[in-house]
Design goal:
Layout lengths: L1 H21 L5 H20 L8 H24 L11
Keywords: Transcription, Transcription regulation
InterPro entries: MT1864/Rv1816-like_C (IPR025996), Tet_transcr_reg_TetR-rel_C_sf (IPR036271)
Protein name: HTH-type transcriptional regulator MT1864/Rv1816-like C-terminal domain-containing protein
């Protein structure tokens, strides 16, 4: 188990460093965990054949799109209170 800890910690610190440099005003630990989870989830979807793998370019575009969507959504989600669900009259 000790053999796995060092590489995992190195990757974790690498991701945290990128997050700190790119987003200095956010919780680097929380965002780096989020980014790692997203990429890990995408990797498993890829390995399970759930994503289009027709070309390396398609795979790269899917990963970029997913990460970009997270960052595009984050500012509006963090600053705007959630609206209550719309009521319907039936």
């Amino acid at each position: 188990m000790g053999c796995q800890r060092a590489p995992t910690e190195a990757i974790s610190e690498y991701v945290r460093g990128i997050v700190r440099a790119t987003f200095p005003d956010v919780d680097a630990d929380a965002l780096s965990t989020t980014v790692w989870a997203l990429v890990h989830g995408l990797a498993f979807l890829h390995l399970d054949g759930k994503l289009d793998t027709s070309t390396p370019e398609v795979v790269a575009a899917q990963v970029r799109s997913a990460v970009q969507a997270l960052f595009d959504a984050s500012p509006s989600m963090s600053r705007t209170p959630a609206a209550p669900p719309a009521r319907t009259t039936d």
